Amino acid sequence: MFAIVKTGGKQYRVEPGLRLKVEKLQAEPGSQVELRVLLLGGEKVAVGAPYVEGAKVVAEVLAHGRGKKITVSKFKAKVQYRRKRGHRQPYTEILIKEIQG
User: Fold this and answer.
1) Fewer CB near the last or first residue (10 Å), C or N of the chain?
2) pTM of the predicted structure, to 2 decimals
3) Is-contact 7 35, C-beta < 8 A?
């Protein structure tokens, strides 16, 4: 059984036992979060409008972290304009415990 969930403006295909890095969630490590289901798949497919009624995914928050550093550069020709900045996107690592529905 699998499910499509939406969190942080992105959609993920999840299965029980999957470790996943998602956009940062406001939850403590060790706590459980519930994600709403857009599509439930397996032997029988259920499509939500926009969410599947009575279905949810239970996940455990493992850790919070920050991704790899990326460099953002701006440049304009002939005017001596140069800017260089770095960015590290925060994330939350979760473990999918079960899919209910």
Assistant:
1) N
2) 0.82
3) yes
